[in-house]
Design brief:
about 210 residues, mainly alpha, four-stranded parallel β-sheet
């Protein structure tokens, strides 16, 4: 069992599924100095992979293949009311995201999220910007880092299943786009401005982008 002190990062359901169907989970968490044993997930993830809208979106077979991976990962410990109460009833942040952000803020963990709607709501909540500064990792940033780590062509080979469920990836890795990394940098730069004062994780060392 992974203890809370050994847990380095948290990943939400959307990001888990998109990286999972693209066979990018191990590479992605490795870029953040962790492995899947030190990556916390929500309790409902295995159940969500088996039924409901998630299998419909990502495919039943793809989701079933991700169930053992999800079950091997530790469940995040509930955050205290000190942090969780700040997010209660905030429009745009569901209970799962609230638990994820509150736990990351309380325990100084990195959080990988694909929910930009939730981040737009989080940016206005007092104290979260300071607590999560540089610890919020969005999918766009991970894809930029993976371009550098794996190479654009290797990432382009893996991306179709992910791109089918993510508009930004679909546009950036479209057949007619010769520079996916440049397109991702543009999208990510716009997101940085939009989500201020939240400080996102920077995929390029020494850069704010």
């Amino acid at each position: 069992m992974v203890t809370q002190s050994a847990m380095r990062l948290l990943i939400d359901t959307d990001a888990f599924c998109k990286l999972g169907v693209g066979s990018l989970l191990v590479d992605a968490v490795g870029l953040l100095g962790a492995d899947l044993r030190g990556c916390g997930r929500l309790p409902a993830l295995p159940h969500m992979l088996r039924r409901g809208k998630v299998p419909k979106l990502f495919g039943v077979e793809a989701c079933e293949a991700l169930v053992p991976i999800a079950e091997s990962m530790p469940v995040i410990e509930p955050a205290s009311d000190v942090w969780l109460d700040k997010l209660t009833s905030v429009q745009g942040i569901d209970p799962g995201e609230a638990q994820m952000f509150a736990s990351a803020a309380e325990r100084s963990l990195i959080v990988i999220t694909g929910d930009k709607r939730a981040l737009r709501s989080l940016r206005s909540i007092p104290s979260f910007a300071d607590a999560l500064a540089g610890r919020i990792v969005v999918l766009d940033a991970l894809l930029i880092a993976l371009c550098d780590h794996l190479g654009v062509e290797e990432l382009r080979r893996r991306i179709p299943a992910l791109a089918a469920a993510d508009k930004t990836a679909k546009v950036c890795f479209s057949v007619g786009n010769a520079d996916p990394r440049g397109a991702l940098l543009s999208y990510h730069g716009s997101l940085i401005v939009e989500l201020d004062p939240l400080q996102l994780w920077a995929p390029c060392p020494g850069s704010t982008v």
